[in-house]
Amino acid sequence: DQGISPRSQFFAPLTMVFPGANDGEDWVVSGGSSPDGIFNLVEATRASSNTVYAQLMLEVGPANAVTTAQRMGVTASLPAVPALVLGSGEVSVLDMASAYSTLANRGEAIEPRSIVRIEDASGVEIWRAPVRSERVFDQVVADSVTHSLRGVIERGTGRRASFGLDAAGKTGTTQDYRDAWFVGYTCELTAAVWMGYVGAPGEPPRFMTDVQGYEEVAGGTLPAQMWGDFLGRATDESVECRLPSIADPGGS
């Protein structure tokens, strides 16, 4: 949306240090290195490269990232800090599903509704919730993101989410495996999966190690598998439809 091409290339080492970017302290970011040392944004999304997205966050600016998230449907209060790109803010599952639906709707944000309609005892509809929508991106911007998120499922960190239909999505794993996510969509349905421990106030955090045979639960493990299992059943009788297609902006 700020004119940065998906073809943009960034250095992609295993670890990068950003002097002074952590409230005056050095910001050390690790994860998602490229064998060649460089990723474009499509490749970085597919590989879930923290070092590339840390650079992108500094280029677009944390305040712009917060504004974009709010436009997409995130209602949570987010910290306008560089580490937000790696999960420093807390967002509800509903907010995540709402935001990804904006991408599925090709840039149009639609306010979530808990009750869609009310019918009387005979099945006659007596009330329907109004649909409140707002265009927040050009279609080409949303479709470029969809193209990148397709690659996550097809040959990236979200391969376990694949269920046979055209879909796009993204894995998410916070530091020390405290939270694991998979959020994605087809042309008909958006779903968000979160895994983690909900502790009592003041209780120390619990991390997802040694869970059902997984030494460490990342977004591409159980959350992606659950998402694919659910979408496979939820769309079992659907006629396959394709997400918007664009010319490959990634070059590879």
Q: Care to describe what's here?
A:
The protein has helices at residues 41-47, 50-60, 62-72, 93-104, 139-155, 222-234; strands at residues 9-11, 15-22, 25-30, 38-40, 108-110, 117-119, 125-128, 133-135, 168-173, 179-185, 190-196, 209-211, 214-216. With 252 residues, the chain is α+β, with helices and mostly antiparallel strands. The strands form 6 sheets. The chain has a 3-stranded antiparallel sheet, with helices on both faces. A two-stranded antiparallel sheet has the order 1-4. A two-stranded antiparallel ribbon has the order 2-3. Helix 1 (41-47) packs across helix 5.
The tally of helices reads 6
Low-pLDDT segments: 248-252
Q: How do the strands of the widest beta sheet line up side by side?
A: 9-10-11
- Give the helices and strands as they follow along the chain: EEEEHHHHEEEEHEEEEEH
> What value does the Rg take, in angstroms?
19 Å
Quick tags:
alpha+beta; three-stranded antiparallel sheet; 6 helices; disordered C terminus
